[in-house]
Design brief:
This protein is α+β, with helices and mostly antiparallel strands. It contains 3 helices and 4 strands, in the order E-E-E-E-H-H-H. It has 2 domains: 31 residues, no CATH class; 47 residues. The protein has a 4-stranded antiparallel beta sheet with strand order 1-4-3-2, with no helix packed on it. The chain is elongated and about 55 Å long. The two termini are 39 Å apart.
């Protein structure tokens, strides 16, 4: 990762080719873009993605009465879906 001394971040933001321009805490940085492919997921990532998919499928099967109960249990800081995922 390179640190830019001039504020080029106001001119460039995002990804250009394999280079990413980012701003953090008022400073601009340039770094290489991550190489992400579906084949490089770890076993733990695959398991987590399957769990989240199962939770989302369960959420979609709930009826209106169950939804009302969940809405009543959710806090002001969290919506009902986030509360449901946290409790599962």
């Amino acid at each position: 990762m390179a640190k830019i001394k001039r504020n080029i971040g106001e001119l460039v933001s995002g990804k250009i080719g394999k280079v990413v321009f980012v701003q953090m805490r008022g400073k601009s940085y340039v770094r290489s873009a991550p190489d992400r492919t579906k084949n490089n997921w770890s076993e733990a990532q695959i398991l987590y993605r399957k769990r989240i998919s199962a939770i989302a499928a369960l959420w979609r099967t709930l009826n209106c009465q169950n939804m009302n109960e969940i809405w009543n249990l959710a806090t002001k800081d969290m919506n009902s879906y986030a509360w449901f995922v946290k409790k599962i």
